[in-house]
Design goal:
This protein has 147 residues and is mainly alpha-helical. It has helices spanning 3-17, 20-40, 46-70, 73-89, 96-110, 118-129, 135-145. It has 2 domains: 3-89, Orthogonal Bundle (Hypothetical Protein Yqey, Chain: A, domain1); 96-145, Orthogonal Bundle (Arc Repressor Mutant, subunit A), CATH 1.10.10.
Length: 147
């Protein structure tokens, strides 16, 4: 079952359950996937679908930080619910230890020794971890290990 079919099925289920929060989030996700499909001009591959979902998740997490800083508790609660829905469609996220192991392995494979090799490591690493780990976590781990 493709992501669009899954979103459509979940949208109908949310309508029947009168779950407005989930319904609006699923509608936004479906619109984002459909727009991306129109932009590229073909059905999305699973990697492209994960990329769209990751982008949507990142937008919500960025907004969450801003709302927390502004003290907007209701908006924070709404966004946390949306984040949970988006995460349910993404592949299982790697733990901090798993990310660290992949980063260490990549650093050895690339032969990186200093912060100057940061871009080289990230260029090899991000395609491996796309959709499986948060970019901020990967970035911080690489910086830490290249110290």
């Amino acid at each position: 079952m493709s992501l669009l079919e899954s979103l459509q099925k979940d949208m109908v289920a949310a309508m029947k359950a009168k779950d407005k929060a989930k319904l609006s989030t699923v509608r936004m996700l479906k619109a984002a996937v459909t727009n991306e499909q129109i932009n590229v001009g073909h059905d999305l591959t699973s990697d492209e679908e994960v990329s769209v979902l990751s982008r949507e998740l990142k937008q919500r997490k960025d907004s969450l930080e801003e709302f927390k800083a502004a003290g907007r508790d209701q908006a924070v609660a709404d966004l946390e619910a949306e984040i949970a829905v988006v995460e349910s469609y993404l592949p299982e996220q790697l733990s901090v230890d798993e990310v660290k192991a992949v980063v260490e392995e990549t650093i050895k494979a690339v032969g990186a020794t200093s912060k100057a090799d940061f871009g080289k490591v990230m260029g090899v690493l991000m395609p491996k971890l796309k959709g499986k780990a948060d970019g901020k976590l990967v970035n911080a781990t690489v910086k830490e290990l290249l110290q």
